[in-house]
Specification:
Blueprint lengths: L7 H16 L3 E4 L7 E3 H4 L3 H21 L4 H26 L7 E2 L1 H22 L32
Antiparallel strand pairs: 1-2, 1-3
Helix pairs in contact: 1-3, 1-5, 3-4, 4-5
């Protein structure tokens, strides 16, 4: 595992994935006025909670897979997948923002945390996809971002005379 391979996008996506996973246990909806109970995502959603948990897990997996892979192809492909999964998560949470389930009066703060977390997953995965990690001025790196020695000088020869 090489944490030097991790960029800001992977950290953002993973942190928001953990936030989404935690938000599934927090109150999403407030109960009826006389009951004063709150409903978490696990209590109020049928199958969407499992999909949201899988989306959160893929966002966290992006961090670990990027740190463990020695080539950039797998993390880049996974960041594309996490972007689309996160966009699906945004749509699912927006649907639950607009559609309050039966037995609930209003929305609670866990729902808003889930919405922010899914938006953060998309933003983090987009940043991870966009960041190509160019070599800093005066330094040289390989495709994984590890420092390497500079390339050898090219010796030029004069053109042959006719």
């Amino acid at each position: 595992m090489d944490v030097r391979r991790l960029r800001a996008g992977e950290w953002i996506a993973a942190a928001c994935g953990v936030g989404l996973l935690v938000s599934l246990w927090l109150p999403w909806y407030s109960g009826q006025a006389q009951d004063r109970s709150s409903l978490s995502a696990w209590q109020s959603l049928a199958a969407l909670d499992i999909l949201l948990a899988l989306i959160a897990a893929t966002a966290v997996a992006l961090l670990f897979i990027t740190a463990h892979q020695s080539v950039p192809a797998v993390p880049v492909a996974l960041s594309v997948f996490v972007t689309f999964a996160g966009a699906l998560g945004v749509l699912l949470v927006l649907f639950r923002v607009l559609s309050v389930p039966d037995g609930a009066d209003g929305r609670d703060w866990g729902l808003w945390l889930a919405l922010g977390s899914t938006i953060g997953i998309v933003a983090g995965a987009l940043v991870a996809m966009r960041d190509e990690r160019p070599s800093p001025a005066g330094g040289y790196t390989d495709v994984t971002g590890r420092p390497t020695p500079p390339p050898p000088e090219i010796e030029t020869f004069p053109a042959p005379s006719p």
